[in-house]
Automatic annotation (TrEMBL):
Belongs to the GMC oxidoreductase family. It comes from Apodospora peruviana. This is Cellobiose dehydrogenase. Residues 411-543 form the Glucose-methanol-choline oxidoreductase C-terminal domain. Its cofactor is FAD. Residues 104-322 form the Glucose-methanol-choline oxidoreductase N-terminal domain.
Length: 561
């Protein structure tokens, strides 16, 4: 049985105290998979750290309260129960960020409070193909080990070790196996992502979401030199030239500047692919056209003067996995209504969950698996990695949706911009604006159709049998409405080619913003290119690696606590 002790809050998030005159060695902005390991590692090193999160608490552990009635009287919220993760599609009020045109979590934990917990040790190509020197697979191994030691993940999230309603998994994996694809344990054989399939791995633990909020934040919160505030949004960094002196924080209808330790303090922005770009723009860091927009907005009077602007290509290099949904139906597939689990649940399922963290509600909605992989090399010679995820969902009760993500190797990019209401907009769609990318997606669809063609009783609903794979792929618009995977990266690209002088990079390989002394960005926004699979594990790894790099930088005279 789960230990209720494991779910007691250690130190609830505090509300902001804007009148405080305290200064901090590090201010970390944002509590997603990028921000939480940073806050933990920097406070572990003895520095005085303040973590600022714009959203409210999510998990019950940290004072979250949003929950269905069957969880009342428990210290669990909707965010803690894996089987309730689909609720984000039914009701995202007070959870999703309202200042982006795409979905992101503006709550404690960021995306790692609302996502499905899918959790993958990256393939070596994920680092080797797009990350700069110092961030290649051998360089990343120590950080990979740190993350998977703290958060090993599991293929069996129910505490009785059983997989519930596995018929969909069995149907698809049986077909792939018969077609010669190999079964692997994904996070033990992470270099084998070609014509292979696996059970789904989640970062869940103890039958609950867990994840970085239950590990990195927990240890950070036990330190006296660590503070964190929720409902505390950062408007901008305050700077003199390239030296950051503090951040302007908005909370409870007022705003104030919280300073870093004079001379030695640093600011780490981990506000996500949209949020980090936005803070940079509001701080006078970005391309002139976007800074002009901010200047003309309600920010105009407080914005740093234009002679202080740092010109960098913030918002370029935007990317997201290209999502292509196929749908099949098979008589063996058994559907489960995870939406009903919120308002009118099956009593035996809620009891199993509450009594022992067992059953279908300990698995993520909507019953994922198998996950499978394919590598395609189009005529341009660049390997493209395809990650496929099957889930029991679709237009029929016996349907499964098979989503293909195009990640590592993809060449297409889009652009993020900001409008005069200070809302971020995907103004250039990043999907399939390269012929090699299109060819890989088409070939991947064809490979899957071929592999499953001999499964008795399996019917393709999308594509239809008369549709060519090329015609099918062409029929799906290449825009976020049809292709969105919620795996946005890249707007604050890391690299050695300084964007102030015509290069493409916004941060250097220590994750420091070019042209600044003490401003760093650590989250999905710094990824130069995409990775094979869902990105949470890779973002945690990037944060671990960045923390080690930042701590290794000379920091003259920093006062340790
Ligand atoms: C619905 C959905 C499902 C997903 N499923 C999966 C999955 O199963 N597996 C997987 O690996 N990935 C999944 N992802 C993607 C994954 O969650 C994200 O890639 C990841 O959370 C990004 O991490 P991050 O730290 O870069 O940013 P975020 O997680 O977005 O965190 C940024 C944090 O910063 C805060 N913030 C923003 N602006 C400010 C500000 N101005 N001041 C203070 N705080 C601020 C935000 O509130 C947020 O908490 C999913 C994403 C979504 C939206």
């Amino acid at each position: 049985a789960p230990s209720s002790e494991s779910h007691q809050p250690r130190a609830a998030a505090a509300s902001c105290s804007l009148s405080s005159k305290d200064t901090y060695d590090y201010i970390v902005v944002g509590s997603g998979p990028g921000g939480l390991p940073m806050a933990d590692r920097l406070s572990e090193a003895g520095f005085k750290v303040l973590l600022l999160e714009k959203g409210p608490p999510s998990s019950g552990r940290w004072g979250g309260t949003m929950k269905p009635s069957w969880l009342s009287g428990t210290n669990l919220t909707r965010f803690d129960v894996p089987g309730l993760c689909n609720q984000i599609w039914a009701d995202r009020n007070g959870i999703a960020c309202t200042d982006y045109d795409q979905l992101a979590g503006c709550v404690l934990g960021g995306g790692a409070a609302i996502n499905s917990g899918l959790y993958w040790k990256p393939h070596p190509d994920d680092w080797n193909m797009s990350f700069p020197a110092g961030w290649k697979a051998p360089d990343m191994q120590a950080a990979v080990d740190k993350v998977f030691t703290r958060l090993p993940g599991t293929m069996y999230p129910s505490m009785d070790g059983k997989l519930y309603l596995p018929q969909g998994y069995n149907t698809i994996s049986g077909g792939l196996s018969a077609a010669g694809w190999k079964s692997i344990v994904a996070n033990e054989q992470n270099d084998q992502r070609n014509k292979t399939f696996s059970h789904t791995t989640y970062y869940f633990s103890g039958g609950e979401r867990g994840g970085p909020m239950a590990t990195y934040l927990l240890t950070a919160s036990q330190r006296k030199n660590f503070a964190f505030w929720t409902n505390a949004g950062v408007k901008r960094v305050v700077r003199t030239g390239g030296h950051i002196t503090g951040v302007e924080v908005e909370c409870g209808g007022s705003s104030s500047v919280i300073n870093v330790t004079p001379n030695t303090g640093r600011v780490i922005i981990s506000a996500g692919t949209f949020g980090s770009a936005k803070i940079l723009w509001r701080s006078g860091i970005g391309s002139k056209d976007q800074l002009d927009v901010v200047k003309s907005s309600s920010d105009g009077s407080t914005m740093v003067s234009s002679d202080q602007w740092i010109t960098l290509p913030v918002g370029n290099n935007l990317y997201d996995h290209v999502g292509t949904d196929l749908e099949i139906s098979h008589p063996n597939v058994v559907n489960y209504d995870f939406y009903a689990a919120y308002t009118r649940p099956v009593q035996s399922d809620t009891q199993a969950y509450l009594n022992g963290r067992t059953g279908i509600l300990a698995q993520a909605a909507p019953n994922f698996g198998p996950m499978f992989w394919d590598i395609i090399t189009p005529s341009d010679g660049i390997n493209r990695h395809l990650h496929w995820q099957a889930r029991v969902e679709g237009s029929r009760s016996t349907s499964m949706t098979l989503t293909q993500y195009l990640g590592t190797g993809s060449v297409s990019r889009g652009r993020l911009t900001i409008n005069s209401q200070l809302k971020t907009i995907v103004s250039k769609s990043p999907y399939l604006n390269d012929q090699g990318d299109v060819a890989a997606v088409v070939q991947g669809v064809q490979n899957l159709r071929d592999a499953l063609s001999k499964v008795s009783g399996l019917q393709f609903i999308r594509p239809t049998s008369s549709q060519s794979s090329q015609a099918f792929v062409n029929s799906i618009p290449a825009n976020p409405g049809s292709r969105n995977s919620n795996h946005w990266i890249g707007t604050v690209k890391m690299g050695t080619d300084d964007g102030r002088t015509g290069g493409t990079a916004v941060v250097d390989t220590d994750t420091k913003v070019y042209g600044t002394d003490n401003l760093f960005v650590v989250d999905a926004s710094i990824f130069p290119g995409h990775i094979t699979s869902n990105p949470t594990a890779a973002i945690l790894i990037v944060a671990e690696h960045a923390a080690a790099k930042i701590l290794a930088l000379p920091q003259p005279g920093a006062a340790k606590n």
